[in-house]
Amino acid sequence: MNIFYAPPSQINNGFAELLDQEAVHASKVMRAREGDKLVIVDGEGGRYKGVIRRITKKSVQVEIEDVQHQSRSKPHLILGMGIIKKRDRLEFAVEKAIELGASQIGLFRSERTIKENVRMDRLESIAISAMKQSLQSHLCNVNIYRSLDMMLEAISADTILVAHEKVGETKTRIDSKSIHDSDRTLLLVGPEGGFSESEISDLTDEGAELVSLGPNRLRAETAAIAFMSQFL
Ligand code: SAM
């Protein structure tokens, strides 16, 4: 069944309203008709089954027949990734991290960021389609930070793991106990130039743990996916 997105503000009095891209997707792309059934998620755990009652040029109105609430799986996995030059690779990493269960993503400018080429509007629509694609009901928050420090101040986490290729391979195993005890785990991946020595020493001073993702040097977006997938 196709899943559509309507934020809570568009769900009122037993009706949900699909607008903009979602309305176009339902009525034009999927050719939905009045009387068809569909599923809507609100990005905050709400999952609604309903019947289309009215289709206009700008909206699709759905009468809700059944509501369920899905709670987020724990621990919250948060991906912090250095901004990389190639926008398509950054967007790929964001999409895959969401499919793999990231509840939040912070993209940060770091000492070795080469060039910023980020489009927030594209990331927002990638977040919505990755949520729907992977049948999740929570929308992943994606934010951009002007520095690693600013991201660390803004994102609360009780465990911070840093993917660092210069750490010995003995550190490959992620200590599952610390992860299971953690409610919010932040996974950090550097940009194409990696983390600087001072960023690494600041992070370890803050209690972050360095982990290896194996002997091969991975591109940043591959590292993000490999890191996230260790928690599936
Ligand atoms: N020359 C860079 C350096 O010295 O760090 C390479 C950076 S790598 C292309 C981009 C990021 O991916 C790294 O900062 C790290 O977070 C992650 N990464 C890549 N391969 C890794 C590995 N084998 N183990 C841990 N992290 C890795």
Q: How would you describe this protein?
A:
The chain has 7 helices and 12 strands. The protein has 232 residues and is of the alpha/beta class. The mean pLDDT is 92. It has 2 domains: 3-69, Hypothetical PUA domain-like, domain 1 (Ribosomal Protein L25, Chain P); 76-229, SPOUT methyltransferase, trefoil knot domain (Alpha/beta knot, 3-Layer(aba) Sandwich), CATH 3.40.1280. Helix 2 (87-99) runs parallel beside helix 3. The two termini are 24 Å apart. S-adenosylmethionine is lined by residues 163-165, 189-190, 192-195, 212-214, 216-220, 223.
Rg is 20 Å
Counting H and I runs of at least 4 residues, what is the number of helices? Answer: 7
CATH architecture of the largest domain: 3-Layer(aba) Sandwich
Strand order, sheet with most strands:
1-4-5-6-3-2
| CATH uppermost class of the largest domain | Alpha Beta
Average pLDDT rating:
92
Strand content: 25-35%
Q: Order of helices and strands, N to C?
A: EEEHEEEEHEHEHEHEHEH
The unique ligands bound to this protein are: S-adenosylmethionine
Uncertain runs: none
**What does the largest sheet look like?**
6 strands, mixed
Which class do the helix and strand fractions yield? Answer: alpha/beta
CATH topology tier name of the largest domain: Alpha/beta knot
How many strand elements? 12
Under CATH, the homologous superfamily of the largest domain reads SPOUT methyltransferase, trefoil knot domain
